[in-house]
Amino acid sequence: MKTPLMTEPIEWRLKLAFGVIALILVGTSVTALRNISRSLTGSDWVNHTHAVILEGDAIRASLNAGESALRDHLLTSDPRSLADARVAYAEAAEHLELAKALTRNDPSGSQLLARVEPLAARRVDFAREGVRLRQLGDETAIRRLLTAQGGDTTMAEIKRELEELKRYEQALLQERDRQSYLQAQTTRWTVMAGVAINLGLLLFVAWLIRDDLRARRLAATALQKANDTLEAKVQERTRELTAANQALELENLERQWQYQAIEHQLRYNQLIINSMDDLVLVTTKILKITRLTPAVTHRLGFTAEEMVGQPLQRYLREGTGGTSIAAGLDRLIGALKEGRELQDCPGELLAKDTRPIPVRFRLIPLRDHDQVVGGVVSIHLSTSLPADNASPASPTP
Amino acid sequence: MNKRILIIDDEPQIRELLMRAFQSRGYAVTGVATGREACQSASEHPPDLIISDLQLNESDGLEVIDDLKRLLPEVPVMLVTGVLFDSEVVQALVGGKIAAYVEKTSPLKKVVEEARRLLGESIPQP
C-alpha cells in the first residue's frame, strides 16, 4: 500500500526544498544581522580608541604648554604666563582624568596611564616649586631649579609613556580594523552564499514544478486520449446495440405479424368449417374421435366434450339395422391401415335420443408427410336406406 | 419531412403492428378502423400512401378505396388482405384503383418493401 509520501513525491520534495530555502534565509539573515551588530560595536570601540589617543596627545600638548608657560613666567615673572601655565596644567590634569576614565575597562591602557600620572604629578610639583620661588623673588634658586630641570627626564618619560599608549591603542585599532574587515567579508560571503544557494534551490524547485507540470500535462493528454477512445468505443457499441435493438424490434414485429397472419387464417378456417353443414369427424387410426364439426353436435345432440375421445362406433355404425358393428369397425380400421378410402358407405348415426339416422359416409385416410395419422369421416344424410354396396376400391368383408 | 402513411384496418392488432413497423422506419403513420375515419384523416392530413384491408367492419374495403381515390386521386393504394385470389381485387388492380396488394400471410418485410416501392424509395440491400 502506498503511503502519502510515496503517492505524492513532488509534494514532499517541494516542502523540503522550501524548508531548506527558509532555513538558509533565516541563517543568512541571522549571521548578517549579528555581523552588523558586531560592526556597530566595533565602530563604537574605534571611536573610543581614537578618544584615548586624542586624550593622550592632549595630555602631552597641555603639559608642554604648561612647561613653556611656566618657564616663561619663571624667567619673566609675567603673571599672564603664570595664568597660562595654570590653565595648561589644569587641562593636562583634566585630560589625564578623561584618559583614565576611557581606559577604565582596559587593563593595559590603565597601566600605561598609571605610569604617566606620577610623572605628571612630579612636573606639577616642580611647577609649584618654581612659582613659589618666583613669588619669593629668589632668582638664584630659580636659576638653579631651571638648570636642574635641564637634566630632568620626566617630560621625556611622559612623552615615552604617552607614545607607548598611543602605539598600543593604534595596534588595537589595527586589530579591530582587521577584525571588522574579516567580519564584513564573512558577512558578504555569507549573504552571497545564502543568496546563491537559495537561488539554486529556487531554480531546482522551478525545475521540479515544471517537470511535474509537464508530467501532469502528459498524463492529462493521455487521459483525454483514453477518454476519447473510450467515448468512441462507447458510441460505437451504443450504435451496435441500437442497431441490434432495432433489428430485434423488427424481428419481433415480424414474428407478431406472422402470428397474427396464422391466427387470422386459423380463425377464418374455423369460421368456414363452422359454417359448413357437412357432418365431419376426424379420428385416430383406431377410430377414436379427435375433432368434429359443429354440425355433428347439432345433429346428434351431444356436446363436443362428450364425443371427443370416444370411439366412432358409439355414434356411427356401418350398415343398417343389425349389421355387425365389430365387423364394420374392423373394415374401417383395416382401410385406414392400408391407406384406402371408403366411398359412399351406408350407415346409421346414433343420436342422443337413440333414434338412428340413416346416412351415407365416406372414410378418407388423413395423411401427414405420407404417413396415415388418422381418418376423416364425412357423413351425408340420406332419405332412404341404401343398398349394402361398398366403394369399388374397398374389398368385401 | 417524413412521408405519411394512412393505415385502414378494423383489427387493432394488425393496425398496431403495421403502424409500429412503419414508424420504426421513420414514417409518419395514422391508423384508423373505418372508412369514415379514413376519409376524415385523409382530408385533414393527406397521406403519401394508403394501406387498407379489404374486409372492414362497417364497410367494404373497395368502396372505401373508391371514396379515397375521389379525394386523393394521385395517392397510391396498397391492399393488405387475407383473402386470396378474389376476383374483385383482381379487377380493381386491372382498373388501376389499387397499386398493389399483399397477402397477410406474406412476411411483414414484404409489406414494407412494397410500400417503399410505391413511395418511390429505394429498398436497402442486405
Draw up the topology in text.
The complex is a heterodimer of chains A (397) and B (126).
Chain A: H1 4-7, H2 9-76, H3 79-102, H4 107-136, H5 139-150, H6 154-275, E1 279-283, E2 289-292, H7 294-300, H8 304-307, E3 316-318, H9 325-338, E4 342-350, E5 356-368, E6 371-381
Antiparallel strand pairs in A: 1-2, 1-6, 3-4, 4-5, 5-6
Helix pairs in contact in A: 2-3, 2-4, 2-6, 3-4, 4-5, 4-6
Chain B: E1 4-8, H1 12-23, E2 28-32, H2 35-44, E3 49-52, H3 61-71, E4 77-81, H4 87-95, E5 100-103, H5 108-118
Parallel strand pairs in B: 1-2, 1-3, 3-4, 4-5
Helix pairs in contact in B: 2-3
Question: Can you describe what's shown?
Answer:
The complex is a heterodimer of chains A (397) and B (126). Chain A contains 9 helices and 6 strands; from the N terminus they run H-H-H-H-H-H-E-E-H-H-E-H-E-E-E. Chain A has 397 residues and is an alpha+beta fold. In chain A, helix 2 runs antiparallel to helix 3. With 126 residues, chain B is α/β, with parallel strands linked by helices. Chain B is 42% helix and 18% strand. Chain B is built from 5 helices and 5 strands; from the N terminus they run βαβαβαβαβα. In chain B, helix 2 runs parallel beside helix 3. The model of chain B has no long low-confidence stretch (mean pLDDT 86). At the A-B interface, helix 6 of A face helix 1 and helix 5 of B.
Q: Which characteristics define this entry?
A:
heterodimer, A: 397 residues, alpha+beta, 6-stranded antiparallel β-sheet, 11% strand, disordered C terminus, B: 126 residues, 5-stranded parallel β-sheet, 5 helices, 18% strand, globular
Helix content of chain B: 40-55%
Main beta sheet of chain B: strand number and arrangement? 5 strands, parallel
Instruction: Specify the structural class of chain A.
Output: alpha+beta
**Global shape of chain B:** globular
Radius of gyration of chain B: 13 Å
- Give, in spatial order, the strands making up the sheet with the most strands of chain B: 2-1-3-4-5
Spatial arrangement of strands, main beta sheet of chain A: 2-1-6-5-4-3
Question: Which range does the strand content of chain A fall in?
Answer: 5-15%
- The helix fraction of chain A, in percent, is over 70%
Q: What composes the largest sheet of chain A?
A: 6 strands, antiparallel
Please tell me the overall pLDDT of chain A.
Answer: 86
Strand and helix order of chain A: HHHHHHEEHHEHEEE
Q: H/E order of the elements of chain B? A: EHEHEHEHEH
Count of separate DSSP helical elements of chain B: 5
Number of strands of chain A: 6
Number of helices of chain A: 9
Give the strand tally of chain B: 5
N-to-C span of chain A: 99 Å
The rounded Rg of chain A comes to 76 Å
